Amino acid sequence: MTLMRQLHARQFLVASTENAPVSWYATRELEPGWFLHHDPALTVVESDDGVFVGDLPLFHDGASLDQARRQGGRWASVWPVARQSAMGLLSLYWASNGDTIALGSSAPLVADAVNAPRSNLRVGDYRPNWIVPPLSGFTGVRRLIRDQQLTLRSGEVAHDESNRLRSNGGSLDDRALVLQKGLQAQLRRASELGNLKIALTAGYDSRMIFAAALAEGVDFETYTQSEASPAGADTETAARLSHDAGVRHHPIGPTRNERSALARWDEHTGGAIRDADRRFLARGMFDVFTDDDILVRGAMFEIGSGTWDALFPGPDTATMPGKDEFERLISRAFRLLPLTKSFVIPAMHEWRQFRLDQPSTIGWRDRLYVDQRGAGWLGGIEQGIGLLQPRSVQLADTSELVEVMTWEPDDPDHAQGREVQKRSIALCDEGLLKVPFNPATRSSRVKTVADNLSKLARGDARTGVAALRTRLGR
After folding, report:
1. Which residues are bridge partners to 45 per DSSP?
2. Is the pLDDT of residue 443 over 60?
3. Where along the chain do its domains lie?
4. Phi and psi at residue 295, in whole multiples of 5°?
């Protein structure tokens, strides 16, 4: 059986009740009538900027809000004002029933505190495999958008100006240097917490982290999780890179199909996310790791690659589309069915209005990507990973690295995130660029052509034709 921690591991709740929602949680009084209940494994830090709760102690006692965002780690400020990290990977849910306000990293815990029922929204019915912020899977329980803040005493939700998405405005080489140095510093701190196990595939993110670890000289091993049989390009590429560098590599495949683990994941996350890690948990693909392991997994470094430009086609990358056009784009991109459309469209209009009220020099697609793919998708995954024996680190969640990987729409280097990643790798070891990234297999080529034909069938002719021409070399 897969070794898992107890339900609600690595979670917390702030509420007016003195009784902890989970019997083994620690409790501290924040002020008369307000209490913080949390897994004792979480780090709690007090500073002039408030009370912080963190999943890993990558920030130090007394750290200011700005220092915490720049140092990284999965954390949130929870009192007296709730604020999030640069990417918001420690999700903040909140609700009020008129008598009390509850705030927590777990929608189920918040829902229980205010007696909120489950909603009808389920992931899997629409294209994103996560429940889109500001929704949760419970009626009346809201999820703060990445740069929203909640004042606990009053229940007021406002924009957190200090977490506004910005670009550092540097050249490609300048950005690559900041990225490399930032990754190395975080890897050094993470190595002091346990045994580094770096997830390595054929992609850009993981190779960049691999290169930074080699350059920093920390001890680490690599692993690749794959359900493919025989081993696919990810496992083969990772094994080759690791062998050439003299690093031990662990190829990990499925060993079972434990359906009860799926139910436990869903109960723990409130049904917020269904992704590959959920399957990996059920198939025994985390069994090789221990309490002493720190999983370093690459994600969200592609912010500046114009990742959602094709998903939401249109000539203007800066200006938010009108209400009707926005709804059309969301409905088509997410392939909404009638039931989920009744939930998702109002939530996305709420997101749109919040963004209109907070003008930005960053394009609306990139802001949507960070808020949904980052805080929504990756934040949900990280909550699920909290069930595991090892701990997880996401290195992209610092304000410095988010700014490095973000461009303004009129910047000539916009959508050049991959180039920054390649230059960052080259600063560590140019030889790592000689191994192809994401080499196409026959099955992947077939899937790509099928996806592009599907775009054509949905009427997205411009994107589908362009992609097909690229794939066919024309």
Report:
1. 52
2. no
3. 12-163, 442-474
4. -85, 125
Q: Each residue of 278-309: pLDDT tens digit?
A: 999 999 999 999 999 999 999 988 887 788 88
Output DSSP code: residue 127.
S
Q: Are 429 and 329 in contact (CB under 8 A)?
A: no
DSSP 8-class letter at 21: S
Longest distance between any two alpha carbons in the chain, whole Å? 69
Q: And the tokens for 110?
A: 């918040």
Segments in 286-375 forming alpha helices (H): 323-334, 338-357, 364-369
At 360-405, the pLDDT tens digits run 999 999 999 999 999 999 999 999 999 998 999 999 999 999 999 9
Query: Which residue do the tokens 């985390």 mark?
Result: 286
Is pLDDT above 90 for 435? yes
Residue found under tokens 């793919």 = 373
- Exposure string of 54-78, with b = 16+ CB inside 10 Å and e = fewer, is bbbbbbeeebebeebbbbbbbbbbb
81-84 sheet: strands from edge to edge: 43-47, 50-54, 75-79, 81-84, 148-151, 156-159
Q: Is the pLDDT of residue 209 over 60?
A: yes
Describe the chain by its helix, strand, coil percentages, rounded to 5. 40, 15, 45
Q: Where in 291-433 does DSSP place strands (E)?
A: 293-296, 391-393
Burial grade of 217 (CB within 10 A; 0-12, 13-18, 19 or more): exposed
With cut-offs at 50, 70 and 90, classify the pLDDT of residue 57. Answer: low
Asked if 37 and 15 count as a contact pair (C-beta separation under 8 A), the reply is yes
**Fold for the domain defined by 12-163:** Glutamine Phosphoribosylpyrophosphate, subunit 1, domain 1 (3.60.20)
> Pairing mode, if any, of strands 249-252 and 220-225?
parallel
Q: What is the pLDDT of residues 240-257, one digit of tens each?
A: 999 999 999 999 999 999
Average pLDDT, the chain: 89
**Interaxial angle between packed helices 461-472 and 442-457, expressed in degrees from 0 to 180 and rounded to the nearest 10:** 160
